[in-house]
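Bit of a strange request maybe. I'm writing a small parser for structure token strings and I need a real example to test against, not something I typed by hand. Could someone generate the tokens for this chain?
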Amino acid sequence: MASSDEHKKAVEGFIAALSAHNIDEYVSYYDPKCEVTLNGQVVIRSRDELKKQMEQRMSDPDYKVHIVEFLPIEGDDCVRFIVGDTDKNRKDETCVFSKEGKIVQQMITILDKQ
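Reply from user aminoacidic:
Good idea to test on real output. This should exercise your parser:
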């Protein structure tokens, strides 16, 4: 099982891939049966759905995301962090990892615009 430090490195990796518009590398961090919730609603139920959604998002060549800060959370299989993007959105995200180190669940809450 991966440690929380390894999970943080994975988060940094998928954020870097997202900002570099490298969709294949980005989705490689996710389990094929991953689930993504946005403000409590399930919006994505697989890595294939995630890829389609993110291809749309990445169509803006100027779109970038950055980690604002990591937040404390209990459990070695989770990482919680705040991200900001070029649209000035801020999101509180929690990723739950499988034993294999893939993201199986991502919970996103939109906080505000900066």
